[in-house]
Specification:
Length: about 425
């Protein structure tokens, strides 16, 4: 396959970033940071996320397994959490996810993967039991129950990728379906409405909580996971109906702007009661809350339900973000979560899914914009908002493919 000049430039930029992240001692000269998302077993900011970059490069022939192994050892250092705080982005599930990508081509990792997978299944069963009790009490869900980063949508994404026909995968899908079923006395609000602010905690500015459309912390990831299950014939009874319930809500709030459709990132009770949205509520086209995540979820739902118009609308939304200078200007950052790398990779994934040439034609311009931005500032090493994630997006664009299991499962994009 011939590599174009933009793809070659993207690969070269990814190589430079990866080389700067090759040695943990050079990345953290004062020693591994402790606490928060910098813990070694943190996918967002720790050694786990940087390990994922080097694993993907080794799997595609652009890196070496010695570097990947060094970072895997750094990620596995210390006590591994399988407690209540464990999730796709932290602890045993995060380590199981990155190890599963390595074990796909390196059999030497399968024994440790089995242990991590068993721990992840135990974590998931504990979380499911608590979620079922909450639903039985007809209470609204806390954010950490179902979101991608902390909750069961994230754990579901892992299990669906790792063992799609396993009992634990079916159990998580059944819970996600139940999450969409109406609660009594819902006051017209969806059953995934949360009685907290977008931070996950109560706040005076959100006295009635909020409804979250986003991929990181909202119903967007749930929609993606359920749609993937239906697309790949691993769905359980009620999956299509659950997807339709989510889509009915997102359709109600979809806005048709001059450049294309868009969805809000979140809603307050007051905004929901008004039944209308101000144009200023259009989120920037980031992965976490904007079109990079929501449009991909809508595309997957359209494909799963056999709704070509939904697919077209989703692709129009991402195309608008790629072509609109004002929207692009809202993403000065380079990372996956809040920046250009997230938009680049989501758009690449969407173009690849359906062979959309219009989207594909815009990718070289965004890749060039991203490479230029990299040359103008320093970079945090982390995966979610830093150099490791940016390198992965550029690497994948330059390669034109990513082998299974897909590294972007943790973003609910594949």
């Amino acid at each position: 396959m011939t590599t174009t000049a933009p793809e070659a430039a993207a690969l070269a930029a990814a190589d430079r970033l990866a080389q700067a992240l090759a040695d943990p001692v050079a990345v953290w000269p004062l020693g591994r940071p402790e606490g928060g998302r910098s813990w070694p077993q943190s996918l967002a900011g720790g050694a786990s996320g940087i390990a994922l970059l080097h694993i993907e490069r080794a799997r595609t022939g652009h890196g070496d397994w010695d570097t990947a192994h060094t970072w895997l050892l750094a990620a596995l250092h210390g006590d591994i959490s399988a407690a209540a705080n464990a999730n796709l982005y932290f602890g045993a599930p995060a380590l199981a996810f990155i190890t599963s990508t390595a074990a796909a081509t390196q059999s030497s990792y399968r024994r440790v993967l089995d242990r991590l997978d068993t721990a992840t299944t135990t974590v998931t069963r504990t979380r499911l039991a608590a979620a079922r009790l909450r639903i039985d009490r007809a209470e609204r869900p806390p954010m950490e129950e179902f979101d991608l980063i902390q909750g069961l949508s994230g754990l579901g994404a892992y299990h669906l990728s790792r063992h799609p026909h396993h009992e634990i995968t079916r159990d998580v899908l059944a819970y996600l379906i139940r999450l969409t079923e109406p609660l009594p006395d819902a006051a017209g609000l969806p059953p995934w409405w949360m009685d907290v602010a977008p931070t996950g905690a109560p706040h005076a500015d959100y006295p009635g909580g909020h409804g979250n459309f986003g991929t990181a912390h909202g119903i967007g990831a749930t929609l993606s996971v359920l749609s993937r299950a239906l697309l790949h014939d691993t769905a359980v009874p009620g999956t299509a109906e659950a997807i339709e319930r989510i889509c009915a809500w997102t359709d109600h709030w979809r806005q048709d702007g001059q450049s294309g459709p868009w969805w809000p990132g979140q809603l307050t009770v007051e905004q929901s009661a008004d039944h209308r949205l101000h144009p200023d509520l259009r989120p920037r086209p980031s992965w976490c809350y904007g079109a990079s995540g929501t449009a991909r979820a809508q595309q997957l739902a359209g494909l799963a339900l056999g709704e070509p118009q939904r697919v077209c609308d989703a692709e129009a939304a991402i195309l608008a973000a790629l072509r609109d200078p004002e929207q692009l200007a809202e993403l000065p950052e380079t990372g996956l979560c809040h920046g250009m790398a997230g938009l680049l990779h989501a758009a690449w994934r969407m173009a690849t899914e359906t062979g959309n040439r219009a989207i594909a034609a815009e990718l070289p311009h965004l890749a060039d914009r991203l490479v230029t931005a990299l040359d103008q500032s320093g970079h945090d090493p982390e995966l979610l908002d830093g150099a490791a994630g940016t390198a992965l997006a550029l690497h994948t664009f330059g390669m034109g493919h990513t082998p299974e299991p897909h590294w972007d499962t943790f973003l609910a994009l594949a």
